[in-house]
Amino acid sequence: MDTSAPVAVTGATGYLGSxxxxxxLEAGATVHAAVRTPHATAKVAHLHRAADQAPGTLRLFNADxxxxxxxxxxxxxxxxxxxxxxxxxxxxxxxxxxxxxxALEGTRNVLAGVKxxxxxxRVVLTSSTAAMYGDAVDLSDVSRYPGGIVTxxxxxxxxSLTREPYSYSxxxxxxxxxxxxxxxERWDLVVINPAxxxxxxxxxxxTSESFTVVRMLIDGTTRMGAPRVxxxxxxxxxxxxxHIAAAFTPKAHGRYILSAEDTDIVSLGRRxxxxxxxxxQGHPDDDAPPLxxxxxxxxx
Length: 300
Prior knowledge:
By secondary structure, this protein is α/β, with parallel strands linked by helices. 36% of the residues lie in helices and 17% in strands.
């Protein structure tokens, strides 16, 4: 892994971006972390901790997805740009403003910065399996997904602003990235398409939808029952490692699905029980042991 040139990471304070930055720092790279508030001590403290414990070097740069030209400084001298910044929320009042615009215009602005930076030769983009299918109904269409199997050749064609707008935003952003990549020959594009990302956060207040789902399982929201919605899941640390591998593996190309296993919401809840229950104290229902006080603290 050649770490002689710095690596620019967008969304470096985010759930996934933090792990990408940490992995690069541990590999000895200089990380140009593009963040919205580089001087907000609490929001970047976890990045500084990661840098203090690693041989790499951290540099913070102010950038915003919706501000044209704001990534240019962070990309200066970089050979690789890893673009992780994009909102992952589902409950929004205005899907266009809160999801589509930051995902699509943010990708355009980041790649416009790449265009202005001659040193960049590779871009790694965080997309999602959501760019390959919109929901479970899609998978039942065997004409498009034979046997309900999604491959790297699949594209989501059913999502919209009114149906699965998050999936729609990821589809538009990735398609735009491929369009822009095809219009030039200096840099190549590798796209990572993870399933539902789970695992620990480095930052103090993660905003990923992943934490919303887990919080609902343990804060009482689903106490009357949880839908047995199937999903594929993958650990955030594995996703970060895949981004770094894509950045420094010359033969890497195209799209890569990342999925560790197929599971469902109920099974995820059951996995939490051993972590957040007290030892048996004679509770009358062995299937419903008393909650550990740590449970509440974990989701605040």
